[in-house]
Design brief:
Layout: H1 2-24, H2 31-41, E1 55-57, H3 61-86, E2 95-97, E3 112-114, H4 120-149, E4 158-160, H5 161-177, H6 183-208, H7 213-221, H8 225-250, H9 275-290, H10 296-323
Antiparallel strand pairs: 1-4, 2-3
Helix pairs in contact: 1-2, 1-10, 3-4, 3-5, 4-8, 8-9, 9-10
């Protein structure tokens, strides 16, 4: 099941990325295909069609982050509890909890016995997944808050229904990709937890629950320097994206002003037209580093993020230059000094 899920996720990321890469190739024979892909990707100010056929309001963006918060929270809580109870990093390496020991009459939530150690590499893999999901949670919660309180979407702003479905796919598949190598064990663990709760009942389950916040957090603190470098890069992009979103949100004080656009200035807008996209790339680059860089699924997720955002940023940059005669000539589309 786990191998099948990983293969399915990798196939999905490749299938989602390839059309964008093909549409981005500078060959005249691909112009029609480029227009089709661009039609799916256009939204908001860039979508200059009066037709509402096969489109949804752009404020449906909120749906992405509702799904993302609920799904990421579920994965984070279950994976963290599995890691805390079954593969902690701060215990005797020759001891580990087993599912069997928990159903042999022991009164504690975790029973320990001498046994061959769980491989330390696997323990760290699980806790890296916890850390990745924790960072993802920080990202999607902030994005949900921004879609509700920061962005003032125009009543005429639309996006293609296909783009809407891709967004739902992304925020379902992305959190899952961050923990897919451990998800089968987490799933079995969660089923056992539910079964125990049903058998013992709420009162007995709460009495058995022994929880130590210090132990809960300390395993995360034992992760390597690479994870903390990745986290620093993640928050560097996270902070700049929040600033750029505040700038964009401040440009439209009244959502009824459908056709009034101004040139954004400040922060990374000084160098690129879509700094919020650039920051998103930095955020996911941080996640790749946190993962250790050895997980192909996360690399494929990153590849989709980069190709999708670069493709969208190119069209946004073209729109700005056509819309404003005084648009800063030194600004590039998304990659400083390159593109």
């Amino acid at each position: 099941m786990e191998v099948g899920l990983v293969a399915m996720l990798r196939t999905a990321w490749i299938a989602a990325t390839l059309p964008i890469l093909i549409a981005s190739m500078p060959f005249s024979c691909l112009n029609s295909f480029h227009k089709v892909v661009l039609g799916f990707a256009k939204r908001g100010k860039v979508r200059q069609s009066s037709s509402k056929r096969f489109t949804v309001p752009q404020n449906f963006f909120c749906h992405f982050y509702v799904v993302a918060v609920v799904w990421t929270t579920l994965l984070l809580v279950t994976t963290w509890m599995y890691a805390y109870k079954m593969v902690p990093l701060n215990v005797d390496p020759f001891l580990y909890p087993t599912f069997a020991s928990r159903f042999t009459g022991g009164s504690h939530i975790i029973s320990w016995r001498k046994s061959p150690a769980v491989p330390i590499a696997y323990r760290y893999s699980v806790w890296r997944s916890v850390f990745l999901l924790l960072l993802m949670e920080v990202q999607v919660v902030r994005r949900l808050i921004e879609t509700i309180y920061v962005f003032k979407y125009s009543s005429s702003a639309r996006m293609h229904i296909f783009g809407y479905l891709i967004g739902l796919f992304f925020y379902t598949a992305a959190p899952l990709s961050l923990c897919c190598n451990n998800v089968l064990e987490v799933y079995k663990f969660s089923l056992n937890e539910v079964a125990e709760f049903i058998v013992k009942g709420k009162k007995n389950s709460l009495q058995d629950l022994e929880f130590d916040w210090y132990e809960f957090i300390s395993s995360l603190m034992r992760l390597g320097w690479l994870q903390w470098i990745g986290a620093a890069i993640f928050f560097w992009g996270w902070i700049h994206q929040q600033r750029c979103h505040d700038i964009l949100g401040s440009l439209r004080e009244h959502s009824e002003q459908n056709d009034e656009y101004v040139i954004p200035h400040g922060d990374w807008f000084k160098i690129v037209s879509s700094p919020h996209y650039l920051a998103e790339i930095v955020i996911y680059a941080g996640l790749v580093i946190v993962s250790g860089g050895a997980d192909l699924t996360i690399w494929l997720l990153f590849g989709f993020v980069v190709s999708n955002l670069v493709f969208a940023a190119a069209e946004t940059h073209r729109w700005y230059r056509q819309k404003f005669e005084n648009y800063p000539k030194n600004r590039l589309a998304i990659i400083p000094f390159l593109y």
